[in-house]
Amino acid sequence: MAENEKLPKLLILFDSQTGNTEKIANAIAEGAKSVDKAKVIMKKIGDPFGLHELADSDAIVFGSPTHYSGTSWRMDSFLKRLQEVEVDLSGKLGAVFCSYGYARPKIAYLPPTSFALAVLPLYTFLKSVGMRTIAPALRIRDEDVEKDLLICREWGRKIAEKLVTGSAHFT
Questions:
Q1: What pairing do the DSSP bridges indicate for beta strands 70-71 and 39-44?
Q2: pLDDT tens for residues 6-55?
Q3: Which helix (H) or strand (E) holds 148?
Q4: Is 160 exposed, middle or buried (0-12, 13-18, 19+ CB in 10 A)?
Q5: Cα 85 to Cα 64: distance, rounded to the nearest angstrom
Q6: What CATH homologous superfamily does 9-165 map to?
Q7: Residue 127 in 3-state DSSP?
Q8: What region does 38 belong to: left with phi over 0, alpha with psi -120 to 50, or beta?
């Protein structure tokens, strides 16, 4: 690679309140970092970072815990603020993931509508700013995070491969 050649940059931007979504984000980053020629950056909502991080990225993965069938209040607030500022995200690649859990652990089924409501604000945001979705949404149940980290790594690897090769098709 030439010295001045720019590596495609993948930003993983997430909110995490109990640590589960952060574990998922870390596994996604680990998988993405396994792909040569991809620069992977992680930023947590609430930690300081400049909006140039988004503008300078070629792909952005948004992740949020699910609360009451929706994204976290911090992610919602961040997306609303982001739409008010002038950061051009059009044409960038995007993907979304969420973690979910229940107050009553005996409930083993997440209704599809609950999952759809959780990722809908994220997908709506991607579309509203002109981003191109490059992967189906990833959802991981809180109690399954540890056993599903391999799935998260593989998902991250596939996204980084799409970024590096320029392929934006679902596989």
A1: unpaired
A2: 889 999 999 998 888 999 999 999 999 999 999 999 999 999 999 999 99
A3: none
A4: buried
A5: 21
A6: Flavodoxin domain (3.40.50.360)
A7: helix
A8: beta
CA distance readout (Å), 167 to 6, 39, 93, 134, 151? 18, 17, 10, 8, 20
CB 163 within 8 A of CB 155: no
* Predicted pLDDT of residue 78: 92
pLDDT < 70 regions, the chain: 1-5, 102-118, 144, 168-171
| Cα–Cα distance, 64 to 66 (Å, whole number) | 6
Paired tokens of 33: 């970092």
Distance CA 87, CA 73 (A): 21
Beta strands (DSSP E) in the chain are 9-14, 39-44, 59-67, 70-71, 93-100, 132-133, 138-141
List, in order, residues 6 or more apart from 132 with CB less than 8 Å away. 91, 92, 93, 94, 126, 168
Beta-ladder partners of 12: 42, 61
Q: Which pTM does this prediction carry?
A: 0.86
Residue 53, Cβ density class (10 Å: 0-12 exposed, 13-18 middle, ≥19 buried):
middle
